[in-house]
# Entry
Amino acid sequence: MILITGGAGYIGSHCALALLNRNEKIVIIDNLDNGHIETINALKNIGNVEFIKGDLKNKKDIEFIFKNFDIDTLMHFAGYIQVEESTQNPSKYYENNIIGTINLLNTMVEYNVKKIIFSSTCAIYGEPEYLPIDENHPKNPLNPYGKTKLIIEEMLDDYDKAYDIKSVRLRYFNVAGADCSAGIGEWHQPETHLIPNILKSVFEKEKIFNIFGNDYDTFDGTCIRDYVNVEDLACAHVLALEYLKKENKTECINIGTSQGNSVKEIFDTVKLISGKNIPVEFKPRRAGDAAKLIADTKKARKILNWEPAHSLHDSIKSAYLWEKSKLARLNFDV
Ligand SMILES: NC(=O)c1ccc[n+]([C@@H]2O[C@H](COP(=O)([O-])OP(=O)(O)OC[C@H]3O[C@@H](n4cnc5c(N)ncnc54)[C@H](O)[C@@H]3O)[C@@H](O)[C@H]2O)c1
# Structure
């Protein structure tokens, strides 16, 4: 059985869905700090999901699951994810992300569970020294959020050496899209990601969308990021699981598309898909925003045999449909 931490959240729920579609047995732990019970209910409509409302900071919550379910593998998504908040309140991030993971790993040791897939991030690389960014790029995270992820990767190395726990750390670039047919999608509060924030300006009357910086060294002056579709990302998790089972080897693997899109391009695509004129204002650059972040994904293609199947247009279209259906359910006038 697979234990999914943070499965009531955005990416964890899409990976849970991919596992349900393969008839895997899953149990989810989530404290619902940032996840949603509606997401768990949507998953329960699709397959057999065990859900435990629990907190990784309480080791007893984790032990309860290991005692009651036959766990053989973990997918670890749970954590706080807001970069800006992490700079203002680092203790919240170190406490939750690090202590939660220590509790998880120590319980794995106690119950002799040896396989874990971990949600890492391109934020561990910091300001790019070259592009595209491969897995050997120097690691200099610029904020406590990114630092917690790098510390966890280092912990995973130590737990591998000492206790033979094998991990695949998937370093996601920017994740986008939704599986709205399943009733799940991106639902962060507050929302700090680009596409759902542009969509807020589509659906909330007269909400101006701010573009931070239009004087970067890029073809249109706005920042460039690598957007990977969430269903493609879920597929990478399934392949990572197979890899761990077959090869039993620890790996770090970038998950992106090797393509970059500018903020302006994303904005224009949302405008096209929604058919709405979105009010926009250009603001000064934000501290810590690199001009370009693009993944080198050769390793994912070689080791996992993974290829992104969805286009950026697919991701934005599904995000749009998800946002619309979510607001309709929450009784907003859309
Ligand atoms: N969204 C992205 O673009 C992106 C990019 C790179 C990496 N990641 C990583 O992917 C993972 C999932 O991201 P997401 O966008 O789905 O975030 P999310 O906030 O939607 O999901 C995280 C889930 O973890 C739960 N959680 C947090 N702390 C917990 C704790 N102590 N105990 C139990 N549950 C807890 C939250 O309630 C939430 O449901 C995170 O680890 C994040 O760092 C995300």
User: Anything to note?
Assistant: Residues 6, 8-12, 29-35, 55-57, 77-81, 96, 100, 119, 121, 172, 174-175, 188 surround nicotinamide-adenine-dinucleotide (CB under 6 Å). Residues 90-110 form the longest helix (21 residues). The mean pLDDT is 96.
